[in-house]
Amino acid sequence: MPPCPRCATSRVKKDGHVGETQRFRCRTCRRTFIMRTGTPFAGHRWPQEVIVTAVRWYLRFRLSAADVRDLLAERGVDVAARTILYWVQKFAPLLARAGRRAAVRPGARWWCDETYVRVGGTWAYLDRAIDERGQVVDVLLRRHRDLDSARAFFVLATYRRRATPEEVVTDKHPAYGRAIRDEVPGAVHIQSGLHRRCGPDTKPIERSHVPIKDRLRPMRGLQSIRTGQRTIEGVELARAVQRSHIMAPPDAGAGGTTGAYARARTAATTFAWLADSLRVAA
Q1: For residue 282, is pLDDT > 50?
Q2: Beta-carbon neighbour count of residue 133 at 10 Å?
Q3: DSSP sequence for 106-148
Q4: What is the pLDDT of the chain when averaged over all its residues?
Q5: Domain segments of the chain: what residues?
Q6: Is it the case that residue 38 has pLDDT exceeding 80?
Q7: What is the separation of C-alpha 209 from the centre of its chain, rounded to a whole number of angstroms?
Q8: What are the CB-based long-range contacts (under 8 Å, 24+) for 31-37?
Q9: pTM
Q10: Distance (Å, whole) CA 179 – CA 71
Q11: Of all residues in the chain, what percent carry a pLDDT higher than 90?
């Protein structure tokens, strides 16, 4: 029996059904609830599994919302493309937050850089950082490429990942030096470029821009900085799950197979596990 979401007691009994959903009644506070009560999925018509699957497809694969709509329709689920976009905007940042809690701790050396993305018909700047394993530390979408954006990125990354780098490799953009001195004063700043005969270069971070730009291309541009940040966080989460930068649940390896098939099943199981963790945190 699930615990009561209001008083957290385990004195719960079954109390009929709401449609096809099991209803429970708390013996202590006498209130009724279902499995989704008190979670971000409460109030939605479709089950949690349908919502998480649609969000995962949209974030993981190069699909438009209309493509996801058609795939769901083939499986008997009639959902509008606008509803799928609403689900992505609501649940992508929640899943990304849960993913950061389960993520592998970032390494000591960070590569930081920005890339261009289309937002509302104009170009905006996406600040990104990766560590020596290729794990994306954090992302921040901003309208301008300036000192305030660089500072905001390092404040956000160090706060959300609870980690501080020992070395930061960047290009020669002057804002990085000031931002690193102010926000991560203990880190060694290494200014480099795409080609360098010795020492670290910026190739790792430049290569890591390619998957995110490939995924954003079918979207034909983002609509705003706010919604773009939410979507990009979800896209980075899907890639982190695929590359095993998110600790998988204990039962993710069940099935007896290895290779691409096992990785695909593990990714789906991890997304479902992260969604279940929202139930506990709600």
Answers
A1: no
A2: 13
A3: P-SEEEEEEEEEEETTEEEEEEEEEETT--EEEEEEES--SHH
A4: 89
A5: 1-35, 48-102+246-281, 109-226
A6: no
A7: 16
A8: 31/4, 31/6, 33/4, 33/5, 33/6, 35/2, 35/279, 36/279, 37/5
A9: 0.86
A10: 45
A11: 66
For the beta carbon of residue 77, count every other beta carbon within 10 angstroms.
14
Token pair in block for residue 35: 């499995």
- CATH class, 109-226 region: alpha beta
How far apart CA 272 and CA 91 sit, in angstroms, is 12
Q: Is 246 left (phi over 0), alpha (psi -120 to 50) or beta?
A: beta
Q: What SS3 class is residue 201? A: coil
Question: What backbone torsions phi and psi does residue 53 show, to the nearest 5 degrees?
Answer: -65, -45
- For 219, list phi and psi in degrees, rounded to 5: -75, -15
Is the per-residue pLDDT at 258 higher than 70? Answer: no
Low-confidence winner among 55-59, 62-66, 84-88, 259-263 (lowest mean pLDDT) = 259-263
